[in-house]
Amino acid sequence: MLEFPQNFVWGAATSGPQSEGNFKKQHQNVFDYWYQQEPTAFYDGVGPDTTSNFFNDYKEDLLLMKKAGIKALRTSIQWSRLIDDFETASLNAEAVSFYNDVIDTMLANGIEPYINLFHFDMPVELQHKYGGFESKHVVDLYAAFARQCFKLFGDRVNNWFTFNEPKVILDGAYLYKFHYPLKVNGPLSVQVAYNINLASAKAILEFNKLYGSNKEKKIGIILNLTPAYPASESEADKKAANIAELWANKMFLDPAIKGKFPEELVVLLREAKVLWDATSLELDIIKNNTIDNLGVNYYHPMRVQSPDIAANSLQDWMPDIYFDDYEMPGRVMNVDKNWEIYPKSLYDIAINIRDNYENIDWFISENGMGVSNEERFIDETGIVQDDYRIDFMKNHLSELQKGISEGSHCQGYFTWTGIDCWSWKNAYRNRYGLIRNDIHTQVKTIKKSGYWFEKLSKRNGF
Ligand code: BGP
């Protein structure tokens, strides 16, 4: 039996925009808007209204999650739902009462709330008027929204996160066109990266003003860490992997934990003439408002080789002029997602945090397996026989446990996800849940992995 530390948290993760549905929302976020403009950009034409309807069904959904052994739920508050006027951060009464009741219902069911404040869901008005996180004014509006959340729910919520996967916002919205506003602008993505780091620090500043002296209250950020492994031991490949590591991981890890950007990255961006605009006052805010704990979303690593210089010298500045993907022969793939399955990265991440990031407390805030057409695995009892997902979790948890046994302070594992949810452009192409949701009938059924998770969480191991 592989055991985890006492009080290890067994949870699931989702987000407001992917689970709540869009009923009676005052404002749209960028995905609500983009879907309205271009439904065909989304898999099977399915948009953000088609969810498990958490906005109406949260009581039943939380009971189901409890039955699957989920003892903590990481979800998010939608800025576009909670706030009526973004400039003054005035509140929407219906949304306040919804989120209050969600939190109370979680606690009544023994499900600990872990609340995230931004999951790709920029209010579209702020995107159109100011360019979203391109603008430092929006940084301040976000901090005001964060403060409202802390004030409203901080009496009951002990664990907070400022952002989910800021790197994906850069990739999606500013480099590779899978998030609205679909821009391709390398230098702008650098400024957005800086502004999001600043926004996170400003939210932490607000949090500390309210709860700084309360040791029970913690705030962190959620990063999708993708260790970058070089294709070979050649100096050129190692250099490429080093830059990929700076760009993909350290650009957010370092300011969040150490309060400053990696010098190597700053030099590289300055030489390329794309360094962000920063003031010394802002850099002090980043320095003085670091996180209490870290959320790590882990799905797959990066395999990196030195770039094709000739091809890259023709294009405008983009971060990937420094590194190319490497399709390593023999790597194990999740073919439905086209993502490599490599559990050992979790051990590497654990040791990296232990040795290079102050051995800070951290969580796996997402890890899971997305599979297409899961109806093919439904047996005669109506249950999805998702042994592949159980194996995926076992293999990842084994590596994680090894890292913990060697002194890394991982405090919990949140699988992505509890109930199958809508996933941006991919909609329901891949399902990740421990609980199946039939999006036509809204019938929700615990999968084999959900029954397995229930035992895992009860025994604190497997
Ligand atoms: C992460 C996001 C989640 C979720 C997950 C699966 O990057 O934080 O919101 O969507 O990826 O994504 P997909 O369904 O596109 O495979």
Automatic annotation (TrEMBL):
Molecular functions (GO terms): beta-glucosidase activity
Gene Ontology cellular component list: cytosol
InterPro entries tied to this protein: GH, Glyco_hydro_1
Keyword Hydrolase assigned: yes
Domain of life of the native organism: Bacteria
Record key words, sorted: Glycosidase, Hydrolase
Coiled coil: none
Gene3D superfamilies xref list: Glycosidases (3.20.20.80)
GO annotation (BP), single: carbohydrate catabolic process
Entry's family note: Belongs to the glycosyl hydrolase 1 family.
Record protein name field: 6-phospho-beta-glucosidase
Organism: Liquorilactobacillus cacaonum DSM 21116
